[in-house]
Amino acid sequence: MNKLKLTAGSLSLVLVLSACAPERSEDQGTASSSDAASEGLLVWAPDIELSAIESQVEAFTEETGIPVEVVSMPQDDQTEAIVLDGPSGNGPDLFYQPGVGNLSIQGLVHPVEVDQEILDTYSAGSLEALSYDGELYGLPAVVESLALYYNKALIPEAPETVEDLEAAMADLTDDANDQFGFLYPANDFYFSYPFMAGYGGYIFNEDSDGYVKDDVGLANDGQYKAHL
Question: pLDDT tens digits, residue range 203-216?
Answer without folding.
Answer: 888 887 777 888 99
